[in-house]
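Human: My hope is that you can spare some time for a protein that puzzles me. I am handing you a single protein, as its sequence and its fold in token form. Could you go through the record with me and say what the backbone is doing? Take your time, and here it is.
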Amino acid sequence: MGVEAGEATFGRFNLEYSVTDSQEAARNGKSTTKGNGFGYGVVAGYKYFFTPQLGVRAYANFNHTRGEVNISNGTGGTDTNFANLFNYGVNVDFLGNFLSTENMDIGGFLGIGLGANSLTGPDIKNQRNAIKQSADTAKQAGANVDVSTPAATFDVALNVGLRANLAKHHGVEAVARVPFLPATIADLSIKDPTSGASESLNYSVRSTWSLNVRYTYSF
């Protein structure tokens, strides 16, 4: 048992930018653009082994991804947009050792993380402002409009990887993380009070997967 802290020294992330249009949903109305990025993170928590082979740990994480996606500019070309994706939350992993000696443990882990995502950056701000301007234009035309640009959205992710603990205190881990939920840039809903016609748009960025190497120290 003991306190454990670590840093993800290198991370590789796959990003997905999506625009979902309710009017086009029946005809696959989701526009998706893939991108990539690199990031870093820190973790801190507590672990406990029931036997030399089986244990559990709970920890908090804070990760930052700097990514880019190429988005159509409406003139036949694309613009490169950058985003800062921050992920923070709590995690529970089940630990299993394939090999356990007095000075070395080698094994794997499987767990789940719950937390939140936040998106920042000039390109994200510009897109949110453009969406708000579209909402204002629709309002001036007499439509009922609802627009939101949440500062944070809920996140659920799967954690899986391999770990090695050396000389009791030093650990190295290869970690794969698969988030299930996107980070929302904006939600826009427009309804014509006369005809009753409505349309809703969701703009989001999701880290579809990430791979990183993590160093940990057990106190």
Q: What stands out?
A: Residues 2-218 form a domain with the Porin fold (CATH 2.40.160).
